[in-house]
Design brief:
Length: 250
């Protein structure tokens, strides 16, 4: 079996200032990749501080890069900055996402649109920008969710966006195959990040009864699946969604 060695590769991870994005950036960096740690440039500068802390923890071969996934020009600039800094672009992980949970009855149009803009259009913008500048033989990896499959209560916007990500992944895998760029998605269950821990305790307990492994995922467990997809071990895998959910199917 080939060892996973990403030395000489450059990865961009969106929404990498904390949570699953941070774990993914850390795992890819540990495997030898240079990593552009993308973050949303919020007015207060909190995300910039978090991203710089991630970069400081990684050391060499890491750079914090501001960019709004909702803006196509912004994502093209992120990709170009990664190339200008590290000389190449080989792996792009579309991870940035938000939650605005509410029942359909009570969900505002703004809450629907905010999630679609970030979680679906943001992935489209990221993939489009990456495909323009990525080396042939590259890797696009999109973060989906178990919500797209189960239709979790109160997540109409989030589930719809993530289902769209899974379909977008399949289409892109066909369109980019001629350049040997693989396009895959990872659909986690609940992950013990800031977002996962925000789920009410009562809901967490109910979810755990439905998971055969009896626990939620650690961020590193999802990140290691991304690492596999980014590696030569996954060279013949494209258009797929890998469900990493502890056996949770409803």
């Amino acid at each position: 079996m080939k060892p996973i060695d990403l030395t000489g590769k450059t990865a961009v991870v969106t929404g990498a200032s904390q949570g699953l994005g941070q774990a993914t950036a850390t795992v890819l960096h540990a495997a030898g990749a240079a990593v552009a740690v993308n973050y949303f440039p919020d007015p207060a500068g909190e995300n910039a501080s978090l991203a710089e802390a991630v970069v400081a923890s990684l050391g060499d071969r890491a750079k914090a890069v501001a960019g709004d996934v909702r803006e196509p020009a912004s994502m093209r600039a992120v990709m170009q900055q990664a190339i200008d800094t590290f000389g190449t672009l080989d792996i792009v992980v579309s991870n940035a996402a938000i939650l605005r949970d509410r029942t359909v009855k009570n969900m505002s149009i703004a809450e629907w649109q905010e999630v679609i803009d970030t979680n679906l259009t943001g992935v489209f913008n990221t993939c489009q920008a990456a495909a323009e500048k990525m080396n042939d033989g590259g890797r696009l990896i999109n973060m989906a969710s178990i919500s797209a499959v189960l239709g979790i209560f109160g997540q109409a916007n989030y589930a719809a966006a993530k289902a769209g990500v899974m379909s977008l992944t399949r289409v892109l895998s066909k369109e980019l195959a001629r350049r040997a760029i693989t396009v895959n998605a990872v659909a986690p269950g609940v992950v013990l990040t800031e977002m996962g821990r925000s789920i009410p305790e009562e809901s967490q307990e109910k979810m755990l009864t439905q998971i055969p492994l009896g626990r939620f995922a650690e961020p590193e467990e999802i990140a290691e699946t991304v690492l596999f997809l980014a590696s030569d071990l996954a060279s013949y895998l494209t258009g797929q969604t890998l469900h990493v959910n502890g056996g949770w199917w409803g």
